[in-house]
């Protein structure tokens, strides 16, 4: 059931994948999460349902090059491999909805921007570690696939 300000719950197979799930696929410092992330990303890649945003791509690049110290050109190649995902462009309308989501739900702007991008793509789920599993924002349910 949707809570106040969440709107319609989208019952689609589309899954919005947050940056942390993509980063863990590269993270050699946490082999368990790396294995789980790679497994779930392979599953999503086999279907039509994976969605990311330009924000996720930017965050992935910065995190992979700065935190994981992966060579920039390797990360650029990995970003090209994300072409099988649907990519949401962060437009002014999405930013506007993110601000509303942030204010209504008292979450960070960056998390609200993820929620609004997922909602704009009509995703049924967001896979992330940054929000509480089971919460529903703007009709999109939060799941942490690393603990499922």
TrEMBL record:
Domain of life: Bacteria
InterPro entries reported for this sequence: PIN-like_dom_sf, PIN_dom
Gene3D superfamilies assigned: 5'-nuclease (3.40.50.1010)
Name of the protein: Putative nucleic-acid-binding protein
Residue ranges constituting the PIN domain according to the UniProt record: 15-130
């Amino acid at each position: 059931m949707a809570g106040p300000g969440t709107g319609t719950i989208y019952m689609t197979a589309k899954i919005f994948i947050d940056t942390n799930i993509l980063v863990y696929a590269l993270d050699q410092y946490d082999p368990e999460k790396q294995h789980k992330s790679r497994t779930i990303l392979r599953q999503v890649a086999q279907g039509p349902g994976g969605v990311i945003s330009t924000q996720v791509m930017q965050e992935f690049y910065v995190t992979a090059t700065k935190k994981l110290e992966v060579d920039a050109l390797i990360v650029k190649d990995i970003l090209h491999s994300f072409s099988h995902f649907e990519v949401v462009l962060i437009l002014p309308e999405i930013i506007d909805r993110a601000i509303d989501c942030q204010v209504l739900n008292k979450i960070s702007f960056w998390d609200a921007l993820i929620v609004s991008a997922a909602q704009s793509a009509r995703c049924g789920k967001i896979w992330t570690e940054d929000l509480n599993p089971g919460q529903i924002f703007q009709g999109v349910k939060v799941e942490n696939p690393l603990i499922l």
